[in-house]
Amino acid sequence: MSTFVEYAISALLVIGGAFTLIGAIGLARLPDFFTRLHGPTKATTLGVGAIMLSSVVYFSSAGHGIGISEILITVFLLMTAPVSANMLAKAAMHMGVKPMENTRGNPWEQ
Amino acid sequence: MMTIALYATIAMVTLAALLNVYRLIKGPDAPDRVLALDTLYVNAIALIILLSITLGTRMYLESALLLAVMGFVGTVAMAKYLKRGSVIE
Amino acid sequence: MELVYALVIGALTASGVYLLLRARTFPVVMGLTLLSYGVNLFLFSSGRLSTGQQPIIGSTTAYSDPLPQALVLTAIVIGFAMTAFVVVLSLRNLADNNDDHVDGARPESATRGKQDEEVSDK
Amino acid sequence: MSLPLVVLLPFLGAIAAPLFAQGGRTAIAIASSVPALIALAALFPHWETLSTGGTVVQSWEWLPAIGIAFSFRLDGLSLLFALLILIIGVLIILYARYYLKPTENVGKFYALLLCFKGSMLGIVLSGNLLLMLIFWELTSLTSFLLISFWNHKQDARRGARMALAVTGGGGLALLAGILIIGRIVGSYELDDVLAAGDLIKAHAMYPVALTLVLLGAFTKSAQFPFHFWLPHAMQAPTPVSAYLHSATMVKAGIFLMARLYPALAGTELWFYMVSFTGMATLLIGAYVAMFKHDLKGLLAHSTVSHLGLITLLFGMGTELAAVAAVFHVINHATFKASLFMAAGIIDHETGTRDMRRINGLWRYMPHTATLAMVAASSMAGVPLLNGFLSKEMFFAESLQLNLPGIWAWIPPIVATLAGIFAVAYSARFIHDVFFNGKPVNLPIYPPHEPPRYMKFPVEILVFACIMVGMFPAISVGPLLYSAAHATLGGAVPDYQLAVIHGFNLPLMMSIAAFVGGLIMYSQRQRFFNFHARFKEIDEKAVFEAVVSRFVNLSNRFTATLENGSLQRYAMLLVVSVIAVAAMPLINLGVFVGGNGLSPVDWPTAIAAGVLILCAFGTAAAHRERFTALVLLSVVGLIVALAFARFSAPDLAMTQLSVEVVTVVLLMLALYYMPSWTPLESSGARRFRDISLSLAAGVGMTLVTLAMLTQPFTSISDFFLENSKPGGGGTNVVNVILVDFRGFDTLGEIAVLAIAALGIYAMLKNTALTPPPGDGQGHPWTRDAHPLMLKQIARPMLPLALMISAYIFLRGHNLPGGGFIAGLITSVALVLQYIASGMVWTQDRIGFKYHNMIGLGLLFATIAGAGSLAFGYPFLTSTFDYISWPVVGKFEVASALVFDLGVYLTVIGATLLALVSIGRLSPHSAIKSPREKS
Amino acid sequence: MTHWLTAPILIPMLGGILQTFMGYAPISLRRTLGIATTALILASSLVLLALADDGSYRIYAFGNWQPPFGIVLVLDRLAALMLVMTSVLALCCHMFSIGGADEGNRQFHTLFLFQLMGLNIAFLTGDLFNLFVAFEVLLIASYGLLMHGGGTVRTVPGLHYVVLNLIGSSIFLISVGMIYSVTGTLNMADLAVKIPQVTGDNLNIVKAGGMMLLVVFALKAALLPLCFWLPKAYAKATAPVAALFAVMTKVGVYAIIRVYLLVFGNDAGELANLGMDWLFPLALATLAIGVIGALGADNLKSLVAWQVIISVGTLLAPVALGSAASLSAALFYLLSTTWTVAGLFLVAELVAHQRGSARDRIITAPRMRNRKLLGVLFMMGAVAAAGLPPLSGFFGKVLILKSVEPGPQMAWLWSVLLIGSFLTVIAYSRAGSIVFWRTVDGHLEQPEPVKGKVTTAAGTLIALTVVIVALAGPINRYTDATAQQLLDTGAYTEILQTSMVGEDD
Amino acid sequence: MLDRLSFPQPWLSLILFTTWQFLSEGISGASVVMGLLLAWLIPQITRGFWPERPAFIKPWRMPMYLLILLWDIVVASFSVARLILSPRKPRPVFVSYPLQVEHPLAISILASTISLTPGTVSADVSDDQKLLLIHTLDAEDDQSVIDAIHNRYEKPLLEMFR
Ligand code: NA
Ligand code: NA
Known about the structure:
The complex is a heterohexamer of chains A (110), B (89), C (122), D (933), E (505) and F (162). Chain A is mostly helical. Chain A is built from four helices and no strands. Chain A has one domain. Chain A has helices spanning 3-29, 33-36, 38-61, 68-95. Chain D is mainly alpha-helical. In chain D, strands 1-2 form a two-stranded antiparallel ribbon. Chain D has a two-stranded antiparallel ribbon with strand order 3-4. Mean pLDDT of chain D is 89; it is low at 926-933.
């Protein structure tokens, strides 16, 4: 494994880890449900995507061939995260979860 | 180098998972919990990938694929339950 | 590691048993599920714990004990079938007795909401 | 062959008799008499042997393991009883011909009577104690049915049950006694037992055996304190009372004492137990008989008294007393049977048995009156009648008892006292019924003589009373001798059968009894007044009260234990497990075994911590159901991760897929359930449950820890070595599932299939009303099938199918396989249901889940059965690498077909279960208003 | 390796599969095929009985894998006896069910046949984990059957039954894990070889596992204090199901006999006769509780359900004693009591059918139809159940009484058994006299008269009690031989040396 | 009948076939055969689930769209990360976005795109599919959000789906 590959993998890993963590921090500290929804849909998805990429690089460089699984997972996450978010937002609006005070506009009646 | 990065990443993802658990337990509303669970699934995918890299084996990647599928279906089902009651009707 | 693992099984058993002893079907079902998690982990570990020794020939140098894994796989599927059945039975119970108490409708449940009332052991 | 024939004939008759019921009462009576007549003829040839003290034994092996044999034995004693049973039996049949009304179920009556007769003959002719016991209990059962012949009468039913309880129960004691005797002797054959008297009496178990046997005898023969059933058995039709309760069944206990006399008698224990019981019975029966206004009641208590007399005689233990006892058996049978029949005639003709109403019958039925008076005189002990003879012998023997000091006076005094009562109640029977003024308010008036042949049996018996009374030596001498010989097991003492033995002390006692009895009767009103001061105990009511008290107690006891509380039952189960596992676990020397602990990594520890937190959280939050469910999901997720962490990729995948299906299932159910559990358990209850749970948890922790740290070898090396060469796959877990232990898997998919079919069936007609909104009162949204979800669900189906195919095909060599593939497909289909609804999806799925389940099971079975054709056992797998042009080399394994069966079953079962629940939803058939077609 | 061993498993399996496809076929076809399948099972069981009677062990190694590695079926006398007992019972129950009890659920015959499959696997398997699977198969089918017939009365008892058995299954798995974690094997013969060699702390682990397994079997067998779920569950089940359930507790008894005589038997070293000192008093207490329950029963089915518990106590007491004589006696009694109790369940159902709203409750009601026939059947069943002569129950009890050696155990067993019989007689005579004789004036809406096949089924089971008496000699010789075979564990472990197909001997 | 044997979803079949070749670790005869089989079989099985043919007019524009999207996701993540980590309180807003695309698939793609890109999550689609409710994490005014989405994403989609 070349040093460059190793650097690339390391970078991807750390970036992935960082984004995953940031997504989680968002989930933990943002003030209301609707704002919290943003962290996982974006940061976490990207973070895991980066880790996937590092895995693809790692295993292909280790001679295991290009892993389709990781790519499938990433595509899958990108496809599903908005739907999950949409469904959860609908659920929250239905349940009358209050947005934070300074939110402009209103959630719809469900 | 890579080992350090790997361990750092594992630490970050684990921490992320802990934060998710915090949200999951704290709530306050059901959608928060489901969201946290969904995120936890995604974190778990990351952990499985990291485990695979650590072990140098691809034997666990399909588990990660399944995590993605199952996490999604679970979240959708829960969300639907919350707003509609009947998941399958 | 073994201690951590053992504590996990203990916790699963304890919480499972506690829920089994509840008076409503839903907690009981959850208790059964928790208990079966504990049981599956226990049965699994009867072949001892190992890391990265998946019993796939050629994928590694040493292999963990595959037999408990096969047993647990069977146990998981059977457990699922049983859980499904008991869940549906709970629904039948609810439908027949208009109550989700494990002992069916009880006269006391008319006064539901009265807290700290011993319902099932009279 | 003749002896078993004698026993068998009545039973055959019982089968045949009802066939003659069509022909009227006469026909059936004749038919019913035939077996007895044949039996008498069959017994006759043996007389020569018996008259010289010989025995006839006819025996066939039956169950040597139990020690029971078809062994029949005829000696003087059994002959005597057999004759009583057969002759009186025939007379009873004749009598019953007139007694029963044509409208009654005559066929049943005669059948039962014959069954009883057969059982009775069985008792007396058995040469094996266990065989005898069988007949013994059969008499209890048949008498139960006979007493309750008029089962529409409450008294009859109760009397019958009481009789059954007492005599049947006594039979069980007798069984125990016999088993002990058998164990001591090593055989149940009478010959062996009778020969082993000394052995038995010297054995440590003798007191127990004796007590148990006597319990059997006393209950059957209505000895105090078990006498109470007999008077109440008088609810039976009179022929039954006459037969069972005077001549035969109650004599079975007496017979038993006589039969086992050589084996058991002659000890102090025997003396005290038997004679005192007899004495008490003699006195109590005689006393109570005096005060009965019911004709049959008087006779019944008199019977009790006479049975006591006979028992007392046996208890005395002298040889002469035994002879007297046997003699009195004959005499009592004759006069008491005739008295019962006379009472039956009176009842029949007047419509009542109440002596306060029946008076002066002499005028209406002099013939019957004469017969009854002779028989009653015999009962009273009037000279020249047979009752006198045996009573004299009894008085004589009562004087011979070697009791110390003043105690020696007690037997003669009791005997005389009982004699006084006997004379008094006999006098009452004669005077109060046939004289004493005019009848009072008789239901049937005026009474007249019964049909001619109804009296015939009475005449025969009364004739016998007189003949024996006047010419004892000629009439009954040989029979008595042979019976006494058999009873005593050899030497018969010198005794004289004379009408009168001269003026001696026994005669004085007789005279005293006679005078005293007449005085007592003349002063009867005083005695009645005296007796009336005591509250009469209605034994039947007491018995019923005791039984119903028992029933109520049992009822309450069981209601307390079996209180219908699952919590209770589950608690008992948990406690049982903790209790049995605690001992070995406490004994664990070290908690950490030889292998020690391996190091912990932080992510695992944290995951474990989260799991523990969420597990406890689920328990703590269980009342808030959805929250608990989310926490439960976290637990499931971490369990899956744990499987991956500890080298089990197949398990991780299975767990993940099952987990999500389970959660969907739970939410499907939760829809209809309250979303919140009320707080129902008291603090104490929760404390108890928490303690139990913690005990269980700590126990499991200790076991796991000990287990994980012990060194270990298993059979698994075989699997690792043979997986590839023998099973054709590198995924050992999969090869175990489809090959090494494929049979487990077959069972497991059967479980899945049955569960789904059961669920389907269970929900078929279930109606559930879901709540209109969620727990906080929000009505459900109308948006059943959100647009985005629907749009993403569709492309996911082909994608998931491909992943399933991938997971399925690689399963034999890499993590995966039929289960996981099946679950992925199922989940993809579930997503369609969630996104687009039942109707939409169902329309597009072109198969029935039932058939899919069947097909899956069939595939698996056929794949397993394929090897049978090649002579290999079921489930023997085969695989080969086939090389095709262009395509190249690839593996074909029969196990893959098996796995395909698994795959199909999993899909069919999972979806059938989920869809069955989904179908309950009121919306399932209705399209949401937001739905675009 | 004869393929006959798989017949009692594969026949119901294929029959059950066939039935799943036939959900919408005419009921007459389903019935015919169902009965035919059950009859075939009986036929194959009889073949196995004939095979087993030579006293040898026959094994069938699935997949041609040498034990202890693969799963084996083991046929011995005990297994054959259980198979025949069950299939005779099943045929009668199945006959009864086609009188109409199978309607209202298209899956009845499927569930019924799968239940038989589970039972037969349990009797034949020589593998501890496969025994678990067999239990699950028969349990899940029994859950389905228990709930069969709709109505609300059986839901709660059914729920209790299911939940308790699910807990039981968990305990079973824990026990298997504990035993495997020490011995590294699942084959019972192999366990019998390895358990005596266990030492140290492993001994305690196996001991705890073994005791927990005993609790599981005790739960299935309905031993005190784990018996209270049974009466209501059985009393509320549809008659043919309840009758078939007569064998369910016997599976627990069978498992105790099989596992505890073989694996923890006399030769098990430190673990010899594990748990048997607990079993004896508990069995007697169970008997006592059963009698009390029977006395307090307020309907015939409850009465019979408590009789099931009485039988369990009566059976397990001699099993706990473990001598050849007591085992033989227990097996003889097992045969008798199973059929009798099942017959009584069916009779109770027939009675209930004839008595309008009074059903089978022990209360006064207008005179029923078919009183004579039903009364005779009930009485015979009661006599057999109470252990009175001349029916088979008596011989079973005498054998049990005789088998115990003098001493305190004998005193206890005799007292409890005999006093129990006495009270049972009272219970039955009371119930029978009220139900059959104590009538009030009144009009019953006349139900359809009892059908021939239904009566035949019930009558056959009751009549079997006479057949047992007639064949008592041969049966007793068989049970004696079975007991001898059971105690000779060395012979059982030789199955590990069986050669596979294609191997040289 | 012939229709029964055809490839009802050629695009789907192509995707499936290609994916299969990746999944099977190297192209071989066996993987091609199997891939063809699946590419035929799966669309056959699932044909009922695609009631209407997707109304793609210009599918070749899709890759470009996806590339833009991928880039935006990366950017989005950074901006969201900054927001999450900054102590400043966000200024969230619910925006009702007037939809011009009509095809349900197009709406879904747009909604997904919005969710994956900077600071916006599609919360709901109105019953009549004319409005999209967007929750914006931090925005000055509604109109800028609407314009940005319309120009960057909806326009290309409008061209693809018509
Ligand atoms: Na009078
Ligand atoms: Na966005």
